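Methods, example record. To illustrate the input and output format used throughout this study, we show the complete record for Transcriptional regulator. The sequence lines were provided to the predictor; the line carrying structure tokens was produced by it.
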Amino acid sequence: MQSLSKTEEDLMNHLWKHEKAFMKDLLDSYPEPKPATTTVATLLKRMTDKGFVDYKLYGKSREYFPLVKKKDYFSKHVNGLIKNFFNDSASQFASFFTQETNLTKEELEDLKKLIDSEIKNK
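The corresponding predicted structure is encoded as:
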């Protein structure tokens, strides 16, 4: 799977929220200052070429939809991150993540519950 640029990822997030959307819906979901229509059109073209997005044609209007689930995209990224930056060590990643992200005690407790639950399920 190829990766998306930061601006493509941003647009993809809007599309994941909508599940399917016309250009107008996507533009409306951006905060001010909104990107130019041509910019969004170019990004959508690139993302279609990369296999992340497809569309249905209704007359001249295109309704775009994601071909990749958000969870799948980000799990691939996180796994790549662990492999490339943390010597393929999940514990090195977890150590970095918990120490460098300023998590509250409550957030750390929630993480611990998630991990304990996963351990039970394995």
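Annotations derived from this record:
The first strand starts at residue 21 and ends at 22.
The chain has a mean pLDDT of 91.
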